[in-house]
Amino acid sequence: MPGALNTILGVNILQIGRIFVLLGLAVYAVFALVVVRQVKLMTEVVSGLMVGFLRLIAWLFFLFSIFIFIFTLLVL
Amino acid sequence: MPDLYSAKLNNPPSPPVSPPMEIKNETERDFLPPSRGGSLSSLILRPRSEIHFDTQEPEEKILMIVRAHWLTNFPWVIIAIILFLAPMTLSFFPLLSSFPANFRSMFVIVWYLVVLMYVFERFLSWFFNMAIITDERVVDIDFINLTTKKVSDADLDKIQDVSFTNAGAIGTIFNFGDVLVQTASEITEFNFENVPNPALVATVLQRLRTEEKIEAIEGRVR
Description:
The complex is a heterodimer.
Chain A: H1 2-9, H2 13-45, E1 46-47, H3 51-75
Helix pairs in contact in A: 2-3
Chain B: E1 43-45, E2 52-53, E3 62-67, H1 74-85, H2 101-128, E4 130-134, E5 137-145, E6 148-155, E7 159-165, H3 168-174, E8 176-183, E9 189-196, H4 198-217
Antiparallel strand pairs in B: 1-3, 3-4, 4-5, 5-6, 7-8, 8-9
């Protein structure tokens, strides 16, 4: 299928796919950063309820999204 | 020689003894059940002292923290499980078989990232959507989405009406429902949706309002 499309359009569909995946993952990483920020703000609004745990999860989430972005750069 | 007359000592008049300030402590509020509930509970009564909110006054005590009943998480948990298992069906329906192996792997990874985001967002939305009832006011915290939050509060003496509903079969079986608080403050209405034991929450609010009005009449307003 991608091969057929390549032939028809004369472009590398997989390369375009790669760019879109990377773009999506970059947006995802920004979104994960927003989550980190929002969790920080919310734990300041109400403190004492699993603050450390939620912040840790949010940071892990952000770091994981960065890792996946770099991993995709190398693999795709 | 004995004194024939001795003038009365002009002692300063003792100040009138005012009745002791009766700030009700937690044990006196017998309408409030004993302390219970952890960080993940839907109803936290008399929470431990390290729980605070940002606009809390130094003498203000949190009496109750209310979130939506845990059962309201059931739909998104089911959706998350289905989404989590969905890539496993690819072995039966090879939709991505025409793509190279690395693209197929990336599709699965990206899929799980999206599922992870969905789960985290829904959890945070449940966790931070809460109402805090203190001995002075009601604070409503709405975590609308990951980029929007809303915090509003009303003094207890501004509460005009408190009503509650137990709607639906599930709500009746598991005893959760909505508590509607109408106030005379800027935010005229607070709606605590799907809270556990709405009758208790409404009763506590009504009793606190009465207590606050008595305090106002007796001039014991903080």
